[in-house]
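The step that takes the researchers longest sounds almost clerical: writing a folded protein down as plain text. The outcome of that step, for a single protein, is printed below.
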Amino acid sequence: MAIPTREALSGFIATDPQLTETSNGGHRLYARVGIEQFQRNEDGSFTQLESEFTNLVMFDKAAERAAEKFQKGDNFIAEGRSNTHEYQGEQREQFIASRIGHDNNRTTYTVDRSRQERSSADREASERAAGERDPAAVALAQREQALQPETAAASGTVPADRAAVAR
C-alpha cells in the first residue's frame, strides 16, 4: 500500500493576507509568501541566501480561518498543491493550500482547547449516565468510594492525587 502524499510549503507571510469574495460567493485568501533559502558551507555552517517568493491562495472556510489567524511576518507550514496559471499573458506559479498552520519550530503560540474540553465533558457525562446502568461501572464506583478516606467521602471532595488517578 502506497502512502498518500501531498505537497507542502514552509515559509513566512510576506504581505498582509487579503480575504476577498469569489464570483460564486465563496471566500478566497491571497498572500505573497517567502521561502528562506540557505547554503551549507564547507565548515558545516549555513549562509542565508535571498528568499524566493510565490503566491499562496486558499478558498472557502479554510481561507476564512486563515485570514483570522495569520498576518504579515508569521511563519507557516501549508499543505496543498502547486499550480501554474496565466495572468495577463504571463505564466505565474501559485501554491493552493488546503491546510495551513503556524510553524511550531519557529513560532510560540497558545492552543485554545476549550472546544475540546467541552466535548470531553459531554462525553464524560454520557459515559457516567451509561455507567449508572452498567453493573461493572457501578461496582467500580463503589470500590473507589470505599478506597477514599472518610473525610473525603463525608465532604464529597476527592484528594488531588486521587483526582488525577480518576481522570
Q: What stands out?
A: The CA atoms of residues 102 and 111 lie 11 Å apart.
